[in-house]
Structures are given as structure tokens and as C-alpha cells.
Amino acid sequence: MVLNCGAYKMRKCWQEIVKCIPYRPHAAVYNRAHVLFERNDTRGFTPEEDETLKKYHEKYGNKWKKIAVLMGKSRLHVKDNWRRIKLGNPKAGKWVQKEYQDLYDLVNMDLKMKVYCEKKSKHGMLRDNIPWGAISEKLSTRSDARCCVKWYKLRSPLVAQGLWSDTDDYLMIGKLYELDAACADDVDWDNLLEHRTGDICRKRWDQMVKHIGDYGSKPFAEQVDILAERYSPDLAEDREAWDNKPVVP
């Protein structure tokens, strides 16, 4: 009854339920309830259920709620499984450099588009509110979960410590690209970013270089070029604008 409150005299019930869990946004509570109450005894999807899902999707399209009822599954699990089917057999293991670059290009494009949108509080529990499903489909080699995990692994742990910001990545690479230094020792790290110490800048640089493959054999200038493609300097303003955008209800 709660999951179909619109059909009963319970239209406002979710507002009351959410009040009991104030540290979670409305959408998170609602979606979690559907997962818990719609979940059946068997986890995952069998090959036969995959085929059934394909037939239902061909007939009903993206009407996940209807398909979920027919299959006795959570609509969220049905939708996630359809993404897996569409992706085929996603790769596992080490990422190649093209995948890294494609991931950065897709997330950067999403960021650039979001600068012109409102930053809504209902997305507060979603880090950056990045559409990983859509990004996974365009990347075509990794699942949405793997894309999400990989992206945040690339993020500096210094951010959580308050010693660095995501915007600083773009600013630092932009400065290094302009310098055109022959090696790391040519860089005046202490004066690279006026709001960050040289030690912190160098520490973040070392972290970033670890994710460009066989970094030990690449010259410094080439490392900067590779990272400038990922952290496009012209996106620094967009990244900062999004981070500083006020949250609206």
C-alpha cells in the first residue's frame, strides 16, 4: 500500500516517513523503500530472466515499474540489470589510457552543461550528481558502478582533508601547461598556486602522475600534456562555478 500510496488515502505518507529520517533526502528514502519491499527471495537475474527482461523491454520500453511488477523484482534492480544487458560483457581489470581520457571527457562535458543548471538540494547525497548510467553507456566498456568508483579514486584524498579542491587540479595543470618546463625540478612549486603550498602542489602532482600508465618512462613535458587533456585548463572556471553554486531547494 505504501509503495502505491497514490491509489489510496495516503498521498502525503512519504512526507511523514522522511521526517523520521531527516539526514536522508526524500528520493533516497523513497528508492530504498522500493528496493526493500519489492525485493524477492532470489538475488540477481538468471539467464532466463535476462531473456524475459529483453522481451518485456521490447514490448513496454522503459516502463520499469510495469516490467518490475511482471517480473516480481525491484524496478531499480530491473533498470540496473537492463543497463548491464545493454553493455554486454563490460571489461574488468586495468583501465587503458583511452578509457581514462574518455571518462574525463564525458564527466567534464557533464560538468560544463551543469554550470547553467540549478544545484538542487535533493541531489545533496549524490556526489556531484553525475549521471553514471549515461556515461557508462557512452564509454561502452565499463559499468556505471565501475565508472563511478574509478572517478572518485582519481580524486585526491587531500580534498577530504581540506588541503586541496577539485578546482585546484584544473588550475595547477593549467599553470604547468603554460610554464612548459623541461622537468619537475624546473617548476617553482612554492609559487605555482598562490593559495596552496609547494609541498601540497608537488604531492598532488605525484598522485596524478600515477594514473597515466607507465609514468616512469615518460618525460615531464609529456606527462603535463597528457594531464592537460584530462584536466582541460579552460574548464577551471566551470569547475569552480559549480563548486561555488548555491544550493536551491
UniProtKB/TrEMBL annotation:
Subcellular location: Nucleus
Domain (HTH myb-type) ranges: 45-92
Domain of life (superkingdom): Eukaryota
One cellular component (GO) term of this entry: nucleus
Residue ranges of the TM segments: none
A GO term for molecular function: DNA binding
Pfam families: Myb_DNA-bind_6
UniProt keyword list: DNA-binding, Homeobox, Nucleus
Residue ranges annotated for the Myb-like domain, each copy included: 45-86, 91-155, 156-209
InterPro entries attached to this UniProt entry: Homeodomain-like_sf (IPR009057), Myb_dom (IPR017930), SANT/Myb (IPR001005)
Protein name: SANT/Myb domain, Homeodomain-like protein
